[in-house]
Amino acid sequence: MIREAGETIATLVKGFTVTFRTMLRKTVTENYPEEPVHFQARYRGIHVLHRDENGLEKCVGCFLCAAACPARCIYIEAAENTQAQRISAGERYASVYNIDYSRCIFCGYCVEACPTDAITHGHGFELATSNINALIYRKEKLLEKGPSTT
Questions:
Q1: What span, in angstroms and rounded, lies between the C-alpha atoms of 57 and 94?
Q2: What's the CATH fold of domain 47-142?
Q3: What residues are paired with 76 via a beta bridge?
Q4: Domain locations in the chain?
Q5: Cα(83)–Cα(85) distance, integer angstroms
Q6: pTM higher than 0.85, yes or no?
């Protein structure tokens, strides 16, 4: 009984030590939106679909990212590349690539599953909206800009 009381007091002291140490630290204020937000390198933000060095899309429509997604928020439709119109370096490309951010949990499984490194997490974080349909990001919005053709 006395030992349990001693352990309880020791645990409380340890917990309050952490609390008081944190309370005495200098507060950090982010001046968003006047100043840019400072992200850690490992931050998982809005996804980015990448292009290769020739400006072609890296996504080959293999569906591995959609299969790995536990939230089932990725929807893909694949189409065949032709000699006249080449979209990706592979035989196929993703003609439709949608991510529903109302369901996405930013777990990173899609990034790990991608064999061509076509999808990564970016540093975008502004997803607030009053229209749930605006949270479905289509390929055009996710795809990084290609080399300029001017």
A1: 9
A2: Alpha-Beta Plaits (3.30.70)
A3: 97
A4: 47-142
A5: 6
A6: no
